[in-house]
Amino acid sequence: MSKAKVECKTEGNYIVVPKGLVNVIVDETTISGVDPKGEHTIYRGYTIDDIGANASFYEAAHLFLKGRLPCEDELKEIKRAIDYWRGRVPEKVLDALKHVPATHPMYYGIYGVSLLGQFYAPDWSYDPDFIYDHAIRIIAQLPVFFAAGWHLSRNGTLPKPDPNEDHAYDVLRMIIGREPSRTEARAFESTLVLYMDHGFNASTFTVRVIASTLSDLYSAIAGGIAALKGPLHGGANEKAMVMFLEVKERAEKEGRSMEEVIEEYIREKLAKKEKIMGFGHRVYKVHDPRTDVAAKYIKQLKDGETWLKVIHRAEKVMKEAKNLPANIDLYTAILYYQMGIPIPMYTPIFAMGRVVGWSSHYMEQVANNKIIRPTEKYVGPTGLKYTPLEERCKR
């Protein structure tokens, strides 16, 4: 956590905080955040890398939604529920997705979740069990919307979920259009867990703002997806992979190693004052522990040793030039590429994990709610008077 002091000014009865709410604590949460020592991000008391390396998607989802890791019978039940609902997307929703223009897959998630709310929850309740039930449905079905959107917009096919398979395996299968290896499926599952939550990030805060108005969970999740779609939030791994592919192409064309080219590439970009995606983080100033988990799986997949050398060279350059550590997006970019996942699906995969955290924050917000409504400082003109149209634009 940054040690920089935040000086908040006061104007009358109001507190003026830094633009972007930088280093401003807006509320308390028991879901995730930086530990008091500022050394780790924690998931309900566990370090993020511990859960990311060891927990299944179902275990992590239960931890977030219920506040603790599940017992055996609880694990069986949440697995049954997620697998069941993954295969129960209303046909009318799937039919509607067929008419969406071929755009970025994130739009399919926004559209699909919004429609889902019309089917499942026209009359909303704030009972915790009711919200939990609907959270499970969204968690299970959101990946189907993304996979459907990718394939429908390109070849007109509609991948069908298989409720008999584990969630991560089945979702990856629908995305890449083939049966993944169990190593690939576990690597993919691990990234879903690593992406599940991260304090009051932009999309999570968006969800909490919507929840604070007492809107329904479907509307809040649609808002979270929309916020995550922005390149300053969820699109970093897509941009990072574009960089790696440009480096790969240059290296092959010039007969040089990618390690050599990545250093040259980054220094060229920095000289032009251009941003290098996949580096720097609002929380992790020295090291992102999630990258350790992702690196383990990169090593196990195709050309893993080679890609890790390229990543490590990039890290070395950025450390020397900007003192910035790599973040998880730099690593998942390569990991998803190794699996054959299309680059436009990288951010949707982020959402497939983060939807668990969004749902948990929605539940926490409405359980102890106060509408989030900050006050602005107006700096525009005053004293203007209305003039009739015929006099308004005289020259």
Major sheet details: 3 strands, antiparallel
CATH-level-4 superfamily name of the largest domain: Citrate Synthase, domain 1
Total beta strand runs: 5
Q: What fold name goes in the CATH topology slot of the largest domain?
A: Citrate Synthase, domain 1
Order of helical and strand elements: EEEEEHHHHHHHHHHHHHHHHH
CATH class of the largest domain: Mainly Alpha
Mean pLDDT: 92
What gross morphology would you assign?
A: globular
In percent terms, what proportion of residues is strand? under 5%
* SSE-based structural type: mainly alpha
Number of helices: 17
Low-confidence stretches: none
The percent range for helix content is 55-70%
Radius of gyration, whole Å: 23 Å
Spatial strand arrangement across the major sheet: 3-4-5
Tally of discrete structural domains: 2
CATH structural architecture of the largest domain: Orthogonal Bundle
The N- and C-terminal alpha carbons lie at a distance of 57 Å
